[in-house]
Amino acid sequence: MIGRTYLERGKPVLVLIRWSGPGPRNVLIRRHDGSLVVRPFRGLRLPKPTETEERST
Which residues are within 8 A (CB) of 9 and not within 5 positions of it... i.e. 6 or more apart? Predict the structure, then answer.
């Protein structure tokens, strides 16, 4: 999860830190514009695999 790229509303974000205490799973993300935001992990989606990634599996 940490260091992986996910999509937030179709735009790539990078997960930097996660909080895994009681309550919601929050993550610190860096958005495409460089801003840092803490938000729930829920709702982030994995990008579709590229053609080269599909061939390697």
Answer: none
Coil, strand, or helix at residue 51?
A: helix
Task: Say whether 36 sits in a helix, a strand or coil.
Answer: strand
Question: Per DSSP, which regions of 20-57 are E strands?
Answer: 26-30, 36-40
**What predicted TM-score, i.e. pTM, was given to this entire model?**
0.78
Q: How many angstroms separate the CA atoms of 27 and 20, rounded?
A: 9
15-18 contacts, C-beta under 8 A, 24 or more apart: 15/41, 15/44
Place of tokens 């919601």: 24
- Residue 8 and residue 3: Cα distance in Å, rounded? 15
Tens of pLDDT, residue by residue, the chain (57 residues) = 889 999 999 999 999 999 878 888 999 999 999 999 999 999 999 998 876 666 665
